[in-house]
Amino acid sequence: MLLENEDITILDDKHNLIQSKNGFRFGIDAVLLSDFYEAKKTSKVLEIGTGNGIISILLKIKEKIIKVTAIEIQEEVASLAKRNVIFNSMQDSIDVIECDLNNYKESNSYDCIVCNPPYMTIDGKLINDDNSKSIARHELKLDLKGLIKNSKRILKPRGEIFLVHRSYRFTEIARELEDNGFSIKRVKFVYFSKSTNSNLVLVQASKGRKNILEIEPPLFLDEN
């Protein structure tokens, strides 16, 4: 099960995660997004860009989902996610599919989308688009505009998207959501401490439904 250049991260007393030593490894943002997610347990859920499968696995561990489909564009990374699902005996709950979001055929099908997308724009920089770390961090294969546009296509009417992103891009996120017929429902800003600026933001938005915006109390990581 464990390949060269891989190690195991303990999630709890029953669950573990295989991670690449040299590839992209999950961070606190994945944990925060799994905590932030709130929907009916029976919802039909899609995770976009599952990576090594951490968010879908955490949602199952926290008993927030019955079943989730998790898509991943990178063949090697999708294979790792599939092995992690098997490693944690979650084959009946998590279906990992190697797929480019732009080619995913489902439309008006899902109640919820969960996504921890690449945060960093290209901005003319030369970036290795074959490197798994670069693809996970930079908008090489998926940018914010494409994520929101495809989410609109895939979600049912009144479906909801949950995402985590960099705080400095919040106004861009809000604009893209509004332009695609979403209404923001919940926002939570995350800080490393009370003396720092917010680094992460968690957002829940609904397709085709007007919401009363709820800005939740800030989360200070050094106190949690």
- Count of helical segments? 6
CATH class: Alpha Beta
> What is the succession of H and E elements?
EEHEHEHEEHHEHEEEE
Sheet having the most strands:
9 strands, mixed
Shape: globular
Helical residue percent band = 25-40%
Poorly predicted tracts of residues: none
State the separation between the terminal residues, measured CA to CA: 33 Å
Please tally the β strands and state the result. 11
- According to CATH, the homologous superfamily is Vaccinia Virus protein VP39
What does this structure look like?
There is one protein chain. This protein has one domain (24-223): 3-Layer(aba) Sandwich (Rossmann fold), CATH 3.40.50. It is built from 6 helices and 11 strands. It has helices at 28-36, 54-61, 75-87, 132-137, 144-154, 170-179; strands spanning 6-10, 16-20, 45-48, 68-72, 94-98, 110-115, 155-166, 182-191, 200-207, 214-215, 219-220. Strands 3, 4, 5, 6, 7, 8, 9, 10 and 11 form a 9-stranded mixed beta sheet that branches. Helix 1 crosses helix 2. It is globular and about 50 Å long. The mean pLDDT is 94.
Layout of helices and strands:
Layout: E1 6-10, E2 16-20, H1 28-36, E3 45-48, H2 54-61, E4 68-72, H3 75-87, E5 94-98, E6 110-115, H4 132-137, H5 144-154, E7 155-166, H6 170-179, E8 182-191, E9 200-207, E10 214-215, E11 219-220
Parallel strand pairs: 3-4, 3-6, 4-5, 6-7, 8-10, 8-11
Antiparallel strand pairs: 1-2, 7-9, 8-9
Helix pairs in contact: 1-2
